[in-house]
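A student in our group prepared the protein record below, which I am reviewing. This is what I was given:
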Amino acid sequence: MNLKFIFKVLSASLLASFFNANDCNEIKEYLEKKSLNYKSTIEDCSMDNEGNVVGLKVMNADLQEEDVNKILSYESIKNLEYVVDFKIDDTKEIPYTEVFLPHPGYSGFPSVIAGLPNLEILNFNYRYFKYIKYSPDLKQTTVDEGSLKLSKKLKKLTLSQLNLNNKNLEELSTLTNLEELEFNYCIFDNDGLSAFKNHENLVKLTINNLTGDEKVLPSNIGGIKSLKEIHIEQCYCEESNYDLSNLSHLETLYFETTQKCDLDLSKLDKLTELSIIGPTDIVFGIGIDEPSSLKFPDSLKKLKLTELTFSSDNYKEIASLPNLEELAIVFYGDSVVFTIKSLKCQDNLKKLIIHPSNYSNRSIIENNLDFLNDLKNLEYLDLSIDSISEIPQIKNLKKLNILIFPIIDYLKSQN
């Protein structure tokens, strides 16, 4: 009887061990044996039906290289977010004097990531970042040669706070299945993104917050002919004109610039959404002070132009677009008086925003808004933050359900 009882206990123990044997538990046991906090180190660990880890979020605040190599040794990983986290010494009482503490372990880009054969999504973040008043205080790290020879299955890649040389970018360009590429607070060599000029599957490029003297827009973006979507934040044009005419597949462009940048997009006949945004913060300044030369394709359906100085040529270009469904114009600086008297898109336009910047007191819109009455399919109209002495004629706008109008200014004008 005792032997049977012992056998049952052992069987139950073995079964429990079998059912609890999975990669996430194995990582947890490893970290706990090393007296490392599992919950603060592994923020997410997901598995397939067989207990193999497929998704992992690692917060490296104190890991040694051997710990990193162990955690990232599972070839089943498909989705990885890896953060190198630096702590701030906040013991000083004087404001804005806090400093980063040295990382107590391994703070480089792990070369072991290149050995993950099934990796499809990677987000690497070197989080050495804080604000001093309104300005970011950060630094980038470098990547050893060979470390970016990642899995050929990789489809989406996000890299933050890296100083990327041409060799690094050449390695990335060999990832033939890569579809989305995002850079945050990165620095690029002089050749920019020229290594990607023959890439066939890259459809989305995001570049956020270029920093320091290197915040110039990387060169050779216009050579990546496969792109369908570009999102660029807080950069400036080293040259006044960028040639994007070869991006024949481009459908969406978001372009946030800190200075004048001439753009001829007239040949991009698949472009349907375009935003050109001037700066609105203390670090990069407020608005663009002089007009840019802007040419648009007839294919545009959504156009947003904000914090820009407008010329009469800009108005003519806007008015000539036949397919617009949404249009936003926010004036800045010494823009000429709004001169549009008719829109070629009048039968298609559903949303219209026209007003000066919050940072400009100059009145641009006068009482020449009779064209509004021709916009019979308009559903949304915003004419806020401007002085208009007469309410425009909108009796034909039967579909209008949202109207934002400076009624206070209107009432003042009647006194």
